[in-house]
Amino acid sequence: MSSSIQNEKYEEFAIDLVDLPLSIPSKSANIHATLTDASGVINNKYFIQESISASGASIKGKIVISSEKDSYNVYYDTDLSLNKDRLVIHGTNCVPFTFKNNWDETLPGVKRPVTNLVLLMGPSILYRLDHSSIVWKSVADKNIRGTMMKGATTQVKNKLRITYYYKKNFDEGSGIKNPSRIEFSGYDPTSVIYKENLILDIYLQNENYYDELANEVHPLPGIGCPYYLSTSPTPFPELRTDYVHYTMYEYIQGSSTSRTFSEIHASKKRHQALLRLKATLLGVTTEAIYDYQLGVSYLFEEGESCRISSADLNSPGIGSDVISKIL
Fold first, then answer.
1. Count of CB atoms situated within 10 Å of the CB of 116
2. Any bridge partners for residue 46, and if so which?
3. Could you name the domain of life of the organism this protein comes from (predicted)?
4. Farthest CA pair distance, the chain
5. CB atoms < 10 A from the CB of 273, how many?
6. Dist CA 186 CA 196 (whole Å)
7. Domain containing 114 — which CATH number?
8. Other CB atoms within 10 Å distance of the CB of residue 54
9. 116 versus 11: which is more confidently predicted?
């Protein structure tokens, strides 16, 4: 159900913005926007690109944020158990954020809570604002980037005013779904430390009825992020493993220290699982290829012919619970 616009009556709503459901009218969406401080107190402009995949059971998204000073990648999933979580990758570090009345972390270098809130929610916040719990009041037309636009405003918990503007060729119902600008003025509902005046300008909003971004919203394997390897029933975010290629050094300490260099290629597509493992230890290189569909392995050693054997419990990725299925 859509939100309503009233000319005389004005009401605030008491729901946290994060609690408003994210509803995408298509299978995927791509949004480009900028976030600036209208008051000029913070001279930092954020460039934001958000990719949204909505073809699965839950909506998944990736928010790429950059400025003159820093950059971040933010990942989210609207599954009920993950809806208030974000995974932020900053350089080679990654940090999970959780919303409990407010965000338990702030983006590195971001000191103001409303800025932090808007960046972590991304420009897709526009899809959350079309909700039945919000009552909007019309405001005077305003010149936005050289074009006169209509607008409407509301207030969150009597602290944060939100105003959006849309082109006049849209009616009220469509305008809230296609705003050219969203303004945030006031305080974070959980804090009164900093008064902020932010402008979220939306320059691109593409929606597609087929999901062309499903592979874009998942993080690539990275350094320093143990959450990829989570054994939790609901790992966040899910690491796509159709194709993986990485290199690693393994140090083994005992009576002497040895170092193994390994290069791994893995592919799992259409039930054809393959793994190629190339390792160098003490100057000797071995290479093995595992075909999990056939349940066989091929071993190549320098100066020797290829050896073929059945996959067993010593094969990478094989456990007692799956060996019988392969063999």
1. 18
2. 35
3. Eukaryota
4. 86
5. 17
6. 5
7. 2.50.20
8. 24
9. 116
Whether residue 160 is found in the same domain as residue 87:
yes
Structure tokens at 95: 């940090």
Q: Judging by beta carbons within 10 Å of its beta carbon (0-12, 13-18, 19+), is residue 145 exposed, middle or buried? A: exposed
Residue 63 dihedral angles phi and psi, to the nearest 5°: -115, 115
* Domain identity same for 158 and 270: no
- Owning domain of residue 258: 241-326
Cα angle 98, 238, 200 (rounded to 5 degrees) comes to 50
Tell me, yes or no, whether 234 lies in a domain.
Answer: no
Boundary residue ending a domain (208, 224, 251): 208
Instruction: Give the tokens for residue 117.
Output: 């809130």
Q: Are residues 159 and 301 in the same domain?
A: no
Query: How far apart, in whole angstroms, are the C-alpha atoms of residue 294 and residue 178?
Result: 52
Look at residue 125 and give its three-state secondary structure.
helix
Cut 0.70: pTM above it: yes
Residue 213 lies in a domain: no
pLDDT in tens, 117-126: 999 999 999 9
Percent of the chain with pLDDT over 70: 85
Burial class (CB in 10 A: 0-12, 13-18, 19+), 168: exposed
* Of residues 158, 152, 168, the one with CA closest to residue 4: 152
Residue located via tokens 């493993």: 241
